[in-house]
Amino acid sequence: MPTVEIATFNVNGIRARLPHLLQWLEREQPDIACLQELKAVSEGFPILDLRAAGYEAIWHGQRSWNGVAILVKSARGTPPAEARRALPGDPDDVHSRYIEAEVGELVVGCLYLPNGNPQPGPKFDYKLRWFERLIEHAATLRACGRPVVLAGDYNVVPTDFDIYNPRSWLKDALLQPESRECYRRLLAQGWTDALRTLYPEERIYTFWDYFRQGWQRNAGLRIDHLLLNAEAATRLHEGGVDRWVRDLEKPSDHAPTWITLDGGRAGRAATGAGS
DNA sequence: ATGACTTACAGGGTAAGA
Fold it and tell me: For the whole prediction, is pTM greater than 0.85?
């Protein structure tokens, strides 16, 4: 398979952000894009606009909140084949926070982990329960024998190096030891945090608060992550954050975050950029 | 700071986000 670029972008309202989304797709041309916080019912998903922009998609909407989608560039000839539209483990959970697709030989999970504020409280409890379900499902995915990417808004700042200054966020659900421990346990299964692996000593942010002039001060957090199992990690080539999208007028509070995986066969070290 | 924004839903003021 050729080199593939995979991105994750919390759009914070797909209707409000559609012009930005189309502008970003046009300019960066990711092969696969995982979207979160559609904030729209499934019937409101702008599939015709996306097809016109050269993308096929699967999506799972919800009124007002949540909502996830996986886009695949039509020219690849491998439209996303839906594998599931919820995490297993709780049939009563009605939040649209997970969708999974097969894209050629790749498996792509797109997730929007609960925020969990205020904590302590029921929302934080829900966050941790959801995280446990993700950890359990991820164990199966990791060992499926195919390259897997778990991409999305994890709502976890993994370490104090992933935030401009933890001081004013110490009570926030994103920095709690329980949240970080779940993330650590997930990685410990054998997942590679792609951006941190590519840039072990650089400050990387993917979210800047609307409050307090977060963007203008570069007061950011790294909470959007792309996790790779071994079959995918061996192909990891490049990655980055499309900060220019955060600088547009009326932006999402997140910026698109992306990686590229070199071509080659699963389980083999990449030998080059391919064609 | 139960925030200093922003979105959805609605058609004003809540709920939610992180």
Answer: yes
